[in-house]
Design brief:
By secondary structure, the chain is mainly alpha-helical. 52% of the residues lie in helices and 0% in strands. Helix 2 crosses helix 6. The longest helix has 17 residues.
Amino acid sequence: GIIESCGMGSWKSFNLKRSSRQSIALLVRLMDPDQNKHSAEIQSVFVNSSREMFESMKLIKHLSGGGDSQAAAFIVKLLRRTRPELGLDSFSFDLNSIPTHQSIDPDTRRVV
């Protein structure tokens, strides 16, 4: 479902790229306790997903500017904290340079 949509196939297609950005933003909104009272359950299910599921999200594409870098940074930080065996420390991005997820702007529905 939504996790696979985060890494939609062709980044050459504007519609697929936009769908991918919207999917990762929705996933982060679902895991935001300020937006969803069931966020803890969703985070628990998410972090216990398979390695293949996380690879299908193509977080590197999102972090490199091809998607929603703020949402991807939130997910990478969450996974680094909860699933260190995934080896996400090898990402060569400085996640501190990406604004930290604080909450969701209700007007734009973007991570702020």
